[in-house]
Amino acid sequence: MATQLEEATRAFDRLFTNEIVEAKEKFSANPDSPFHLIGLGVCVFLEAALGMEAAHMAEAARILGLADAASKKAMKNQATWTKTRFTPGLEWEIVNADAVVLQGITHALSESYMGYLQCLYALNNAHSKFTKLYKVVYPSGLSGYLTPAASPPVSRKSSNPSLSSTASERPALKPKASTGNLSTLSNVTKTSFFGRWTASSAVTPSSTLTVPGDSDAASATDGPVEDLILAGTAFGFGLFNLVFSLLPKKVQSFVGLFGYKHDRKLALQALAVSAAKQDVHSVFAGLVLMTYHGVVLLLSGYQANEAHIIKQYTAIVDSVQARYPDGSLWILNRAKILRMSGNAQAAIKVLQEGLSPEKKNPFVQADTLLMFELAWTLLAQRRYEEAAVTFVRLTELNSWSHGTYYFIAAGCLISVGGEENINKAQEMFDKIPELIQKKKVGGKDLPTEVLIKKKLDFYKSKAKRRGGDETNYVSHIKISPAEELGIFWNNQSRTNLSIAESHIKEWSMLSPPVQISSPLIDPSTIPQSSQPDLDTPDESALRLLLLGIAHRTYACAASSADIFEVSKAFLEAAHSYHPQIVKQGISTWIGGVVLFELAVLELKQAEFNEKQVQMEPDQLKKMWTEVLKKAKERLDMALELAGKEVDLSSRLDSRIAMLKDEIVTKGDSLDIEIRI
């Protein structure tokens, strides 16, 4: 068993340095070893997850199924067990749980409600295993264990310490008393933080399991199998809780009928403990944390403690990149940190260097993510021509939604302007219907493609209505499709003053003139037209939404109280079109997204006010209590508008969940209870 683990670990080292072909060869060399099967399954899973390749998803599920069966066999074969300070054979339970949870996540990659339900069905087979393993390996919780961002161990003073290395950054919550008995999750307690999972002090592990002492767990010098058990348990428990916490609210509500609870904060702590180890699981725990922190910084809109998140994120990237400096995944996250920290030009440089033809051992699927990040960053910087080229290059790297790449690239060319680019954009639009004819993940069109089909029909109808040629409708598109889709990636938010001003100038120049006064808009520069550029509720609402976001970005960058109010006026005006859009339009997603952006605005405005005005503690608490409750109400209303018939509703659903998490965290820091 030790030999198999050592061989598999060396193969994983190849994977983490981009040598995925060599890694797969090494894993394939021992098809009877559960370690090798799980490694091969992980390779194909990463190809599926990073490249969104349907064929790889099916193959990943097949291999992970073999790993599931092989690890179950090893669990029953005492000859394969290794003697450690833990229960003999525990290592195989962890490998089995790895296989099951990865199978579940493979289903979730479809971003469809059916995929999420299939994911939960698979995770249902693993949740009791993770809970049992956690109670056995960490009987006193995670206190005392190092995390990448903390040089001393996590404090033992609280039974549920936060990830923060200092209490002032994110105070730990005190767990409430245990209530009830929910199936296998007996004595699970619940607090205001999204329903906390913690083992009650009354719970004792099965008498057949050996439990190490508390000091042993935190300080013992372990071998590779013990490290696998410690890192693997924390990774599996953390990953299960995190995945469940990020599923759309509607799916969570469904499975909540079966007694599932989750705790995102504890999940992140468990993953951080795993990431500090040296086992293979620690690298994947780091990757999960990088992905999560990157998504929160990009999509939640507001962070209760952004500096803390970036600190955690940076420490994890530093830790993994020190071991594997050339790995594309770590280069990607280094660039994301730069972009989220306001240094987009440095991020672009890191990404371009990571994609250099001279780079050794290219990992195609990981390089696709570098290219994807580069494309969006170029678009956010209004480097439209480069962005168009980059989005088209993505079609050469994977098979995921070429129609979406073409749609965004065509939008970029419209923004560049000029007859040649406009003609190229129309040619690209003409190719999209054929590109999205083929059914994609789960036998259904991808969510973005459903929206794109509606937009193409909308453009044709507009051209025909205005007396134009519906086969040459590009000249009637007045708001870039690239910028419209960019709203779903929050692409207009983390930019500088110059970019925000350029956006505002471009969108305010469209006719009819906006009816909201802004010091950033000069009405005298708006051209007069007998035929307005925008003549539908959909377009008017979209323009107002974009102007609201751009003004908010400007207000944050310029620290301008007045512009915050202008931003709010634009967003509220955009929402006023919702009844008309529901009756006669196609952009039914705008209503929910506007409410989300209003919640973000009010949170950022309160953050601005806190920095600008010296308040007494009671005044500060009163202000934030009102703002947090109002933001929560807006998000609840947004969730009501995000039905499954609304385009990209699952993405909005997940963004709402992330932002509510930040609202609760801010409330906790001020001793304000927010019921989510």
TrEMBL record:
GO terms for cellular component: cytosol; mitochondrial outer membrane; nucleus. Transmembrane segments: none annotated. Residues 156-168 have a biased composition (Polar residues). Pfam families: Iml2-TPR_39 (PF10300). InterPro entries: IML2/TPR_39, TPR-like_helical_dom_sf. Residues 149-180 are annotated as: Disordered. PANTHER family: TETRATRICOPEPTIDE REPEAT PROTEIN 39 FAMILY MEMBER, TETRATRICOPEPTIDE REPEAT PROTEIN 39C. This is Mitochondrial outer membrane protein IML2.
